[in-house]
Amino acid sequence: MRHRHPKWTAIAAAVTALTLTATACGADEPADSGGPVTLTMSAWSMKTTPEFAKLAEAFQAQNPDVKIEFKEYDAANYDTQLTADLAAGSAPDLYVLKNLKNFITYQAGEQLLDVSDVASGLGDGVNGLGNYKVDGVTYAVPYRQDSWYLYYNKDLFAAAGVTPPSEAWTWAEYEKAVADLAAGLKTAGSQAKAAYQHTWQSTVQGLALAQTPGADLDSGDYGYLAPYYERALKQQQAGAQVDYGTATTNTLQYQAQFGTQQAATMLMGSWYVATLIAQQKKGDAQPFQWGFAPAPQRDASSKDKPVTFGDPTGLGINAAIDEGKAAAAKKFLTFVAGEGGATALASIGITPATLTEPVTKAYFGVEGIPGDELSRFSFTTHDTRAENPVSPHTAALQNILQETHSAIMSGSTPVNEALAKAGERARNEVLESK
Amino acid sequence: MSTTTVGGPPGTGADRAKRWYRARRSLQGVSFVLPNFLGFGLLTLGPVVALFYVSFTNWNVFGKAKWIGLDNFTRLLGDSSFHRALLNTLYYSAFHIPLTLAVSLGLALLLNRKLRGVAFFRTAAFFPYITSIVAIAIAWNLLFSRDAGPINQVLGLFGVDDPPGWTASSDWAMPAVIIVGVWREMGYYMLLFLAGLQTVPPELHEAARIDGANAWQRFRNVTLPCLRPTTFFVTVMLTIGSFKVFDLILVMTNGGPGQSTLVLSQYIYQKGLVENRFGYASAISVVLFALCMAVTVVQFAVNRRRNA
Amino acid sequence: MAAPHTLPDLATPDLPPTAPDAPPGRRGGRLPAFGRVLGYAVLAVAAAGLLLPFFWMISSSLKTNSGVFSIPVTWLPDSPQWGNYAEIWRISDMLTWLKNTVFLSVVVTLLQLFTGSFAAYGFAKARFPGRNLLFLVYIGTIAVPWQAYMIPQFIMMSEVGLTNTPWSIIALQAFSAFGVFLMRQYYLTIPDELCEAARVDGLSEYGIYFRIMLPLSVPALASLALLTFVTTWNDYLGPLIYLRDPDLWTIQLGLKSFVSEYNAEHALIMTGSVLSVVPIAVVFLLGQKYFVQGIATSGLKG
Fold first, then answer.
1. Distances from the Cα of B117 to the Cαs of C34, C41, C285, in angstroms?
2. Are B124 and C48 in contact (CB under 8 A)?
3. Which of A104, B131, B277, C204 is the most exposed place for a label (fewest CB within 10 A)?
4. Do B198 and C54 count as a contact with CB atoms less than 8 A apart?
């Protein structure tokens, strides 16, 4: 403020100063090193999301001096609630970075402690760790790294007389299989569609970004999405999958679409494995044989290590943490990202960031997980790229691409026109504005 | 207590008494407003003033807010998404305000009578407002479904060959949202009109009837003028509510397809809570505020002229 | 919307000036039977249209979870899952949520009725410098979207330690500008002469408010009470930000806990939503007669 402002501005400034000064929360119990420490940690839907309690339990078994207490958040509005808490200085010591899109906000806002020492101790075996490195400093570690698979219903494949995938398909092979399935299911008198594509932008854009060489969100050039959109549109026009308008107006749920055998194949993240098993057990999903294969590839060259996408879920330490607790918090971070945490997570059907032999064993030891070769291959071998590469522009660009997605899939705007407009908007509204 | 002479005794003391009387009335007036103002000023006005300040900064929730003068506002001038959201908001309001006003007043007139079962109909009219908004969005989306939706089936019966795609079409999504908006809120405003209708003196109607005025004339010349404070209130609330429309659009179309139903409140939400650019979001809020106030002040002026 | 046939009677309120409680149905003879049947038919069709989404809610609450969204839509479930209505009480803290919601709604409504109507009297009938400007400020704050200033507000509330207590919601909702505006407009319709006469009779301003204004404004108070009650009952974003402890959750917040990361209990959400509407519907049915039971102001004019 260079010059004097009118009185009301001064008042406003005073009010703001009062309200915006986030005071670092003061008198927490001073924890002397070695004594019992209580760490608070964010979590959501604890009743249906066992991963948090599982991690804490496994950690406490090895470290009885450290107690983890959870602060529960809303699953859908996690970031809003957490942002408010951080701004008000009432956030927990450890908090989960639910997706990669908002990591940069917390990092740039200096809300995360430097945990480079934890990262260097972990080595290279942790998938997705590099995402949390900004200017050489690591601010969080991943504990789960989901990635996208092609789920398929073995019973429906058999009914349609189509050979199920035996290795990573190329998109051409996938398209042929979908066409065969559509015809085969019809002849077999089945109501099921060949595929279900959920309404999210990621079902098209995620793989396009991961698999296309040179594709870059920050470039403002979205031509790389075109073949993926044309394929999706072609399949819904052919009736091989439910069209976007029907899926949105009927609020279709992917769990019910695949789980009640409305579709023979579906691209979805690895989290769905545990959900489907639970639903089959509970009766929400029908009993049928299924498996998961790598997502279809651009060409055969990547078949040995299929390229797919998915954001890691990370854990960071609140920059305002009590100094005496930082050591214990880092110990916990080392545990969750390492083999110990990974095995605990795998034992409840979650795909952890560290995938060593014991972890894989624990994962396929879970009752109900398809143990066939292809499913094993899909779990252990993949090159998973981030859905939301870390950049200050990502959140804004994904907003634009989400609008582009609904414009294209609803048939409102032709593919090339919509993508050109998305690029123009990205350059105009986001990229050149900083 | 209030035995102070209203006219005041003649002579030198009169002016002083008058002033004393006025000061006392002012003080009493303030004492009425104060209990509410204490809560309102502290809890709402304070943060709102802070928002005005934030609109001149680049505040992103964390860290310090840096004063950047009018930068946020000059950026708005070139922001095509903002223009789109502004136009969509005006589109929505231009239809939603008069339609809701007409339908809710009609409903209130229809249900302002002793009629068997009227309590049921009043409750039914209010039901859309209390039904969970998520359920409303899902059910209306089903009704609007392009191929199998009941609405298009009815249109088909009337010979419409190429029925609109409603919420799945960029041309028809806004009309669909407007329809649901009117449907949802008419019961709410009906309630306010019902309360207002109780202030219309029945003997004025009787007198007009005796003078030979027909129903329309009685409505124009008796009901409407007596209803003016209520109409003013409803119009202002409806205007602000339409300019600020948010949750209905969020659950029904989420602004899509494309940007066809993107409105200002949603854009504010995107920029603020999704992208954490609260400085920019605050600047858009200030524009929205100015828009509402401009319309409200015009309504105030018109209302005052009519009353005069 | 209104059929022209019924219009002749539309403009006239049915309340005779002296006896607001005239027995219903007395004047039916004035409307030809045919018109009455037609009127009811129109109303019945309209009511069906109004209640359809609510019907969908009930129907979904009687389905299995995976049956809620299916193509084609089933409006009547084949085997109604009445068990959902028992299940929801068993697996969730519905009772706690209900208690919290009732507490918040009642306290907020009472406070809003009192502070709102009290301030409204000041704005409508008293005179003090800056009155109209202050009133415009009240309306102005309605025009600012809450999602834009909720974070500064949250920081402020957290400084005074109100977050994560029911008092935060009460403090935020009880002083809203809406109630002040609504009541002010109603008071404007009450003739100033009435107040003047009362002043001459020796009534203080407070006396006028309590003895004259309040009794006269029952319909407005009833609408304000109902609207405030419903708003607080159905509020989601406010409790989401301020009430974190599951013991403090309201129904709307609690129902969202059926939505977890990768799945949602849609049938139970709809069961809970139906249950949550019932109390409001009862309040409305009981209260609705007050909306039309004002004492005709003109009767007191002379």
1. 17, 12, 11
2. no
3. C204
4. no
**Which pair of tokens denotes residue C100?**
């919290």
Neighbours of B107 (CB within 10 A): 24
Percent of chain C surpassing pLDDT 70 = 85
B253-257: long-range pairs with CB below 8 Å, 24+ = B253/B167, B253/B173, B253/B176, B253/B177, B254/A406, B255/A403, B256/A403, B256/A406, B256/A407, B256/A410, B256/B170, B256/B173, B257/A406, B257/A407, B257/A409, B257/A410, B257/A412, B257/B168, B257/B169, B257/B170, B257/B173
> Is the whole model's pTM more than 0.90, yes or no?
no
What ipTM was estimated for this complex?
Answer: 0.85
Prior bond of A358 cis (ω within 30°): no
Q: How far is C51 from chain B (nearest CA, A)?
A: 7
Q: Which of A51-60, B33-42, B147-156 is the most confident on average?
A: A51-60
Helix (H, G, I), strand (E, B) or coil at A190: coil
Give the per-residue pLDDT at C295: 43
pLDDT single digits (tens) A386-407: 999 999 899 899 999 999 999 9
> Maximum CA pair distance of chain A?
80
Does the beta-carbon distance from C14 to B112 stay under 8 Å? yes
Could you say which of C115, C284, C294 has the minimum Cβ distance to residue B126?
A: C284
Restricting to A residues 82-121, those with a Cβ less than 8 Å away from any Cβ of B are 83, 86-87, 102, 105-106, 108-111
The pLDDT assigned to B164 comes to 87
Interface with chain B: mutation pick from C51, C128, C252, highest number of B CBs within 10 Å: C128
- Which of A20, A238, A276, A220 shows the shortest CA–CA distance to B63? A20
Least Cα distance to A278 among A50, A86, A119, A79 occurs for A50
Identify which of A49, A88, A253 has the shortest CB distance to residue C158: A88
In Å, how far is A388's CA from the nearest CA of chain C? 18
Rounded to whole angstroms, the Cα distance separating C139 from B298 reads 13
The runs of H, that is alpha helices, within chain C are 33-61, 83-91, 94-125, 131-142, 146-159, 166-173, 177-188, 192-200, 205-208, 214-216, 218-234, 237-242, 251-256, 266-291
Q: Pick from B124, B113, B82: which is nearest to B291 by CA?
A: B82
As a whole number of angstroms, the distance between CA A315 and CA A352 comes to 13
Residues of B in contact with A102 (CB under 8 A): 276
- Looking at residue A358, its amino acid is P
Domains and CATH numbers, chain C: 32-81 (no CATH), 89-297 (1.10.3720.10)
CB-based contact C244 A71, cutoff 8 Å: yes
Contact A379, A368 (CB under 8 A): no
Q: Are residues B246 and C145 in contact, defined by beta-carbon separation less than 8 angstroms?
A: yes
A149's tokens: 């698979």
Structural domains of chain A, with CATH: 15-146+310-355 (3.40.190.10), 148-307+389-431 (3.40.190.10)
Q: How many CB atoms sit inside 10 A of residue A232's CB?
A: 21
DSSP state of C296: P
Dihedral, CA of residue A394, residue A395, residue A397 and residue A399, to nearest 10? 160
Give whole-number Cα distances, A254 to A148, B245, C69, C263, in Å.
Answer: 14, 30, 10, 9
Mean pLDDT check: name the lowest of A247-261, B241-255, C251-265: C251-265
Contact between residue C97 and residue C254 where contact means Cβ atoms under 8 Å apart? yes
At B217, list the tokens. Answer: 């004339």
Show the CA angle centred on residue A126, arms to residues A120 and A132, nearest 5°: 65
**Interatomic CA distance for residues C57 and C75, integer angstroms:** 10
- Lowest mean pLDDT across A288-297, A306-315, B201-210, C267-276: B201-210
Task: Quickly list H helices, A202-321.
Answer: 202-211, 226-237, 244-249, 254-259, 272-282
